[in-house]
């Protein structure tokens, strides 16, 4: 038997997510509506599809380990030098590298209880001491995060804006004030996975020379390329350069680099997706209200639906939806877990949701599954 490190041996054998594929295998059939992972059912831009098809024949070659062209294109789009840009295998991969670079056993870090879980998962894997502060209502709480960071001497502070799982957001001024109050020795990890979908005024201005913050973006959401695994970090060149010490150098394949580059340039498609996401959010809201649920305001490609009851009811509702072919998810921690979380998607999937939700609510209420 291969011997694990004491740290690895001490970790739970769980992963942060059970994928919809595992649920489908358990159910014995595919979901009719895949609305649980905040992917984009609107798909990637046709230009990205064409670029990936063209690159497929070259997949016998490793991708450029520096992802030079894509890195330059992202830098140009943000009006910054490429030394501020780090590509990685999605935000999840970048979070792993960042934690590996900064957190060893016992190093304190701060997040919110119920926040997007991958950060905490990586911290656990490196033995960091994770402090989780409660949300304030349905928002992550900048003041509580900063206070806890100062108290424990945190190395990293994680904030997702807009937030997953609640879909709520803080305005740019609030986040900027938070950046300015980051305690000495700490770095704010600003996860902006939903930046492309955020309303005007939600994202603070980009200052990539500021060593107090590293910002994370992804092609998984509005660009519709979750399966490709491409994300990037924007930050101070010293921290950005440090990723070279630990990263998986061939982690971004040729097809991924080609697809992301074409997606970046498909500006018209992105505008179109934004409009479709907004329409889908409205539709989810209407379907939810018809069923007696309350949609929370959302700055993302999903909507949290308040059941007005507790986590046990929300879990029963989720199971009833799954049994009827609808994949959704929910927050893991009370009181957020009174909600279920439904991703935006094309009209056909919204129709499935509309047809299924009333029956699933009735089943959850009756306790009949
Ligand atoms: C807040 C947040 N960060 C990161 C991710 C994952 O991004 P990626 O696909 O780039 O790893 C998600 C996906 O749901 C998310 O909601």
> Approximately what portion of the residues adopt beta-strand conformation?
5-15%
CATH architecture level-2 label of the largest domain: 3-Layer(aba) Sandwich
By DSSP (H or I, 4+ residues per run), the number of helices equals: 13
Model regions low in confidence, pLDDT < 50 over at least 5 residues: none
N-to-C terminal Cα separation, in Å?
42 Å
CATH class term of the largest domain:
Alpha Beta
CATH topology of the largest domain: Aspartate Aminotransferase, domain 2
The assigned structural class equals: alpha/beta
Q: What is the string of helix and strand elements?
A: HHEHHEHEHEHEHEEEHHHEEHEEH
Outline of this structure?
The protein is an alpha/beta fold and 369 residues long. It has helices spanning 6-10, 20-27, 46-56, 68-78, 90-102, 118-125, 142-152, 172-180, 237-242, 254-265, 267-290, 311-323, 347-366, and strands at 33-34, 85-88, 108-112, 129-133, 156-160, 187-191, 213-218, 231-234, 294-295, 302-306, 326-327, 339-343.
């Amino acid at each position: 038997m291969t011997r694990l490190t004491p740290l690895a041996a001490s970790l739970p054998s769980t992963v942060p997510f059970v994928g919809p594929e595992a649920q489908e295998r358990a159910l014995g059939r595919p979901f009719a509506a895949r609305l649980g992972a905040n992917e984009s059912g609107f798909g990637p831009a046709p230009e990205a599809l064409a670029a990936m098809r063209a690159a497929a024949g070259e997949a016998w070659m490793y991708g450029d380990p520096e992802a030079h062209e894509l890195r330059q294109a992202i830098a140009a789009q943000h009006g910054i030098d490429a030394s501020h840009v780090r590509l990685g295998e999605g935000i999840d991969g970048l979070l792993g590298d960042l934690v590996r670079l900064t957190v060893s056993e016992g190093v304190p870090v701060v997040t919110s209880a119920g926040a997007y879980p991958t950060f905490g998962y990586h911290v656990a894997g490196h033995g960091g001491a994770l402090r989780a502060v409660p949300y304030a209502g349905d928002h992550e709480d900048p003041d509580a995060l900063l206070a806890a960071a100062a108290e424990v001497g945190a190395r990293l502070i994680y904030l997702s804006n807009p937030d997953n799982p609640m879909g709520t957001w803080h305005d740019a001024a609030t986040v900027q004030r938070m950046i300015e109050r980051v305690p000495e020795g700490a770095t704010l990890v600003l996860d902006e996975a939903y930046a492309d979908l955020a309303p005007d005024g939600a994202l603070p201005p980009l200052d990539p020379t500021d060593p107090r913050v590293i910002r994370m973006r992804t092609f998984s959401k509005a660009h519709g390329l979750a399966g490709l695994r491409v994300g990037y970090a924007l930050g101070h060149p010293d921290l950005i350069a440090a990723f070279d010490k630990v990263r998986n150098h061939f982690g971004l394949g040729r097809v991924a680099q080609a697809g992301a580059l074409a997606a970046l340039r498909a500006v018209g498609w992105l505008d179109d997706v934004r409009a479709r996401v907004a329409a889908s959010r409205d539709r989810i809201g209407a379907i939810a209200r018809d069923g007696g649920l309350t949609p929370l305001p959302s700055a993302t490609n999903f909507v949290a639906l308040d059941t007005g009851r507790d986590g046990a009811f929300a879990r029963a509702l989720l199971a009833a939806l799954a049994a009827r072919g609808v994949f959704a998810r929910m927050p893991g921690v009370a009181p957020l877990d009174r909600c279920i979380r439904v991703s935006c998607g094309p009209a056909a999937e919204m129709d499935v949701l509309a047809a299924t939700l009333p029956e699933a609510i009735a089943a959850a209420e009756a306790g009949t599954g």
